Amino acid sequence: MKISVIGSGHVGLITGVCFAEKGHEILCVDHDKDKLAKLKKGEVPFFEPDLPELLQKHVASKKLVFSDRTEDAVEFGQAIFICVGTPSTERGKADMSYVEKVARTIAENLKDYRLVIEKSTVPIKTGERIRRTIGRYVRGDVHFDVASNPEFLREGSAIYDTLNPDRVVVGVDSAKGESLLREIYGGFNCPIVVTSVGSAELIKHASNSFLALKITYANWLSRLCEASGADIEQVVHGMGLDKRIGHHFFGAGIGYGGSCFPKDVDALAHISEELGVDAPMIRLISDTNKSQLERFYQRIESELWVLHDKTLAIWGLAFKPNTDDLREAPALRLIDKLKAAGAKLRVHDPVAMPNTRKLHPDLYYAKDPIDAASGADALIVCTEWPQYKEADLAKVKASIRVPMIFDGRNCIDRKKAAELGMTLFGIGKAPVKPAE
Ligand code: UDX
Questions:
Q1: Does residue 271 sit within a domain?
Q2: Which of 36, 66, 285, 292 fits a 20 to 30 Å CA distance from 309?
Q3: What is the pLDDT of residue 91?
Q4: Measured between alpha carbons, how far is 252 from 254 in angstroms, rounded to an integer?
Q5: Which residues are CB-neighbours of 134 under 8 A, at least 6 positions away?
Q6: Domains in the chain, number
Q7: CA quadruple 366, 369, 373, 375: dihedral positive or negative?
Q8: How far is Cα 346 from Cα 355, in angstroms, rounded to an integer?
Q9: Does residue 329 sit in the same domain as residue 430?
């Protein structure tokens, strides 16, 4: 099928590339001409495993073409996916101006039936507003449908997640729209859940907030573990074996980050309050998440006594492994606090250093993890990249000034650290300390 995708960021580009991989013909639109010039050459402006290869494959096969005009998208595909940004403003309210502008442009150029599908993460009731907006601005008696088809891809495994989803949710209020969406997803081997537009919108926000709640529950438990002498990894393992609970997204750390969880949790609370439904539980997720990093910082400060003029190494800057995305990354918030306290920072990340340098040109960007640790008064781990889990702790010990590690992701080998006589503070775990 011919499909148009408006917005060629993380969601739109991956959607377009994966639909092309499933045999559809795709037009991806973006207003940023520089970005389009790069995409046409197969260059991706952010780090995402497997994306450059698949992009190059489908640019070459001509299954994927680009344009900077939304009008072209209306002409090209019978199905039009809206994948533009919805940045959040104060207390979780999403800025819908890009979505609204796209809806108007679609309306003004509509000549034949089109199925308009919102895929950007949008507040509930957006589908209804898109339908009304198109209805207001359309010229003549042209038929159209509006559907919601939320994405559940995770950065870092976005291609895999999109090609192998647990389920596809389509919110659609017409038989024609449903049949088009079933055709689009015909090549995907998973259940297709058909709901109303409103239910599909809520499924997206509620799923992300539930996962954020699960992580937050583990983070809160980690505090109880520290206070009571229990071990968070043993606790969540024992709990997660109950199939009703499960192990996924139950790892304690320094808090969730990224472009989705923080924003989606706040947006769910906001829309809920707007609809007259109090959301103290949802607000608490966000507050507890923020205080998790604050506690980590206080632990560092209390152990090191004075941070001014201390040299600290940081491993991991991105909000999670396999991405160079710094949005809401706990490491960035920690960097702000440590810098404000007068610490000197030696940082490392396998892929996120160029993006961090734009925000903090004054840090020392290490050539490898050991270089970062060299001469430092302590090492702080903020992202569980595999290379940090496997790092040679003997080399760390040989190059660091004080062999002390604050492990914000419980990913450093405790046994090895103990053997080497290092001090290791994790999250929700008894510290490893050399005999005094
Ligand atoms: C998320 C959702 O998973 C995805 O379905 C949605 O569509 C977009 O938002 P993403 O933001 O890419 O994806 O990252 P994800 O892998 O979900 O991790 C989010 C954050 O939670 C990261 O900061 C991660 O470190 C943290 N996390 C995850 C934990 O702290 N503990 C866990 O057990 C799992």
A1: yes
A2: 292
A3: 67
A4: 7
A5: 103, 104, 106, 107, 110, 116, 144, 146
A6: 2
A7: negative
A8: 15
A9: yes
Which structural domain range is residue 107 located in?
2-195
385 CB near ligand 1 (under 6 Å):
no
CB proximity list for 101: less than 8 A, separation 6 or greater = none
Does residue 225 have an active-site annotation? no
Q: Which of 139, 168, 195 is the last residue of a domain?
A: 195
State which amino acid sits at residue 163.
L
> Under 8 Å CB-to-CB from 74, ≥6 apart: which residues?
4, 80, 105, 106, 109, 110, 111, 114
Same domain as 150, residue 19: yes
CA gyration radius for the chain?
24
One domain for residues 190 and 209: no
Identify the segments of the chain with pLDDT beneath 50. none
Mind listing the pLDDT tens digit for each residue in 316-335?
999 999 999 999 999 999 99
- Residue 94: what pLDDT? 80
Q: Calculate helix-pair angle for 197-228, 261-274, nearest 10 degrees.
A: 120
Task: Name which residue sits closest to atom 13 of ligand 1, judged by CA.
Answer: 154
Say if residues 309 and 239 touch (Cβ distance below 8 Å). no
Write down the pLDDT at residue 90.
Answer: 67
Indicate whether residue 153 lines ligand 1 (CB < 6 A). yes
How far is residue 148 from each of residues 41, 194, 201, 381, measured CA to CA in Å? 31, 10, 7, 39
Does 228 lie in the same domain as 185?
no
d(CA 123, CA 86): 9
Residue 175 belongs to domain with CATH number: 3.40.50.720
- With a 6 Å cutoff on the Cβ, whether 210 touches ligand 1 is no
Catalytic residue among 28, 260, 382, 411: 260
Pick from 133, 166, 195: which residue ends a domain?
195
Q: Does residue 37 sit in the same domain as residue 138?
A: yes
- 218 and 169 together in one domain: no
